[in-house]
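Expect chain and fold; see below:
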Amino acid sequence: MGVSSRYWTIWTIDAASKGHGYKCWSPPTVQEFFQKQVLEGSAHFPNSDKDIQELLLSVFRTTASSVDLTSRVLAGLCLRCYVSYPILKACRKLASLFSAGKQFTYCELLPFVLNDDGRTQILLDSDGKTQLILNSKGKTQVASYKIFAVEVLRTYRLNSEHRLSLENWTHYQTRQNQDLIDFLSEWGFRSLSDWALLNKVGLQQLERLSQRDRYIVKAFHAVYRRDRRQQRQNSPTRCPDPTEAQLKEMSHLLQEKGVEIAVPAQLREALRQVAANLHQYEIWSRRGAPPSEPLESFDPDTGDRSPTEVVDENSTNDLGELERTEILEFLQESLIEILDRSIDQALSEQVAAMQQRRKYAPLAAKIVPGFRLLYCQGKSQSEIASLLGMTNQTQVSRLLQVKALFNNVRSLTVDQLFLAISKKIQGLGLADISTQPDNLSNIMQLLEAFVDREVFQEAAAELHTAKTKAMNSVYAQRLCRYLQGYKE
């Protein structure tokens, strides 16, 4: 088995580094410990990162006298090495999202969470919560400050129902770090928890979601918002996690709408995903367009672009240059065809959904002509109302739901492109990359960045600024082409 060097190399702040602000190095004895205790010393040879992490966590957290303190420290240090990389990535991600005007860079975020020097010998007290320092004399004392990476490890539950990988848990905890939240708030960025954000969703935000996500949010409101109102006097200010009972009740409501998410843990993750999309929309509204994160990364300090965000030279999952080039070519070749199919599906779904609404069913046949006037002829919604014999601009807006169609097309495009690229990756003999949970998440993020850059960023800007002028983005052109060939 090829084991990533991430268990014995750590990313730390490096003030002397020009431009980057960090460095990667290997603490003494860590690789030797990992080799002897994990690869050679375990009774059952670890087959995956989960197996390795379960073994290291059991040593790091144990209070058994049979395990010496140094082994506990080194087991924890292996894991601290592993989580340092997603902490760094999360900071760069946050900076790219929130600092469109380059008010700050990711380097200013690092001290809040990448505060592990890789040298301090840390273990947990018997309470499993207090960080202790092991000094050179073998004695322990309470640490004067908390290392964020250790807090990530302390709160992680490998076999919990949430089923998040350690990398994804690290990314989530970094985003929720209170010091980072406070820093961003100084720049005017509010940061609500997932549950607070879902709880406050209004009609305008609902229109931006796909039909499935709207059902999920409405089920959340029916149960969670109801309970919050009933318990307002005694409830805490911060919105707590939904309970198992609440999630089960939401699942029953969703089943009535044809959405099957029976397992509470899966529904919780679906809710978090919707919240993540809503966070993105809030950022879009601040910037006037979706954040574009191309397949190559952008360094805000130097202005350079590079194929990868942070290079892990020993990673076993990196694509080779040839495979990467072939995949990029495949994306370019497949995008328009998939975009056209997504437009067809999204518009058909919208017409069918409007036909089910008693008030708007008689007007459903005017959806396609309305979009044709809007996208192909550049008519305003007031002009469309007059030309189609409708009451007013508001009626046109509610019938067309322009932003809802845009978001549904984007979602379908990403999903269908993901299926296509998964088959392509398997065809290249890289099936393991396309099936590992962390890599699936990374691929999805890359695809979203790709389609936004190629299609939806410009289209979103048009929706934000266009009034009566014809729109010329790729999205607008393909939609107009489809509308002109539509057989009513």
Remarks:
- The longest strand covers residues 10-13.
- The chain has three domains: 5-186, 194-287, 322-484.
